[in-house]
Write a structure and sequence with these properties.
Structural class: alpha/beta
CATH topology of the largest domain: Rossmann fold
Shape: elongated
CATH architecture of the largest domain: 3-Layer(aba) Sandwich
Largest sheet: 7 strands, mixed
CATH class of the largest domain: Alpha Beta
Distance between the termini: 70 Å
Number of domains: 2
Bound molecules: S-adenosylmethionine
Order of helices and strands: HHHHEEHEHEHEEHHEHEE
Strand content: 15-25%
Length: about 270
């Protein structure tokens, strides 16, 4: 039987930090006192070898661990959903700081792991928060996360806002797919090979789904309501034109890397 130290040394291609995270998360070892001279039992060694293999293939560590942090939440993630990104944490922060008030009805469209909806509900339990996604796999996982976190957020399968009643939501928040099919070749291979394409691509320029969402929101958003979006960085002209066409107010907000990625659409009261 090998020690953990020997096992580590057999996998120089995988960064040690990833193993640290994996060990602490999956095997519940302390990050500070890795038991390098201990000999793992057969089951632990097998699990370690499998994780090493997956990491070496370029699979994101969040999928290998099966967990991802989002604001103050620890979420289950796997290949059924996009791994939540730090930019989306910023979108939620903007929504909470400036737009969502206790008691608001808030809909998260394209909810994936449920990160946006669950985070809002955790911060403002008095809001009615729900999530929609076209992927039943994603809905299943978001429901698991809601249950594990004991948060009352219903998730339902739907295409965008197609099932929503007239003027039913005061806030609609969404991180829909916004990558163009044309940009496929530029994506890092760990994204392209492992994350669900349904969560990434939206027509040739990446704008199809969001433009449809905007059109549907005309009926579904309450008067004076707000629609908040995360989008690609060079799509601002399209969103400004769409807002002008619908007679809505629009504001672009930059992310931490100075890219205009967040959009606030304001419907007239
Ligand atoms: C970029 S991911 C975002 C997931 C999650 N909100 C997040 O921020 O991590 C986009 C999500 O939109 C969903 N989606 C794609 N097309 C959709 C549609 N027509 N209607 C509803 N959801 C859709 C995908 O299944 C995916 O879960």
């Amino acid at each position: 039987m090998k020690t953990w130290a020997q096992l580590f040394s057999e996998h120089p291609e995988v960064p040690l930090e990833l193993f640290h995270w994996w060990l602490s998360d999956v095997l519940d070892h302390s990050l500070v006192n890795l038991p390098l001279q201990e000999r793992p039992d057969e089951k632990a060694e097998q699990a370690f070898q499998q994780a090493a293999h997956r990491l070496a293939q370029g699979e994101p560590v969040q999928y290998v661990c099966g967990r991802a942090p989002f604001r103050d939440l620890d979420l289950k993630v796997d290949k059924r959903v996009l791994i939540p990104r730090p930019e989306t944490e910023q979108l939620v922060q903007i929504a909470l700081d400036r737009f969502i008030r206790p008691g608001h009805r808030v809909l998260d469209v394209g909810s994936g792991s449920g990160c946006i909806a669950l985070s809002i509900k955790k911060t403002l339990p008095g809001c009615q928060v729900e999530g929609r996604d076209i992927s039943q796999d994603a809905i299943d996982l978001a429901r698991e996360n809601a249950k594990a976190l004991n948060l009352d957020v219903p998730f339902k399968q739907a295409h965008l806002l197609s099932d929503e009643p007239f003027r039913s939501w005061e806030i609609i928040i969404s991180n829909l797919p916004y990558i163009g099919e044309k940009e496929k070749a530029d994506l890092p291979s760990n994204v392209l090979e492992f994350e669900p394409h349904l969560a990434l691509f939206s027509g040739p320029d990446g704008t199809d789904l969001i433009l449809e969402l905007l059109r549907q929101a005309e009926n579904v958003l309450a008067p004076g309501g707000t629609l908040l979006l995360e989008t690609g960085e060079s799509q601002g002209t399209v969103w400004r034109q769409a807002a002008a066409d619908q007679g809505w107010g629009i504001e672009g907000i930059k992310d931490l890397a100075d890219r205009e990625r967040f959009w606030i659409f304001q419907k007239e009261a």
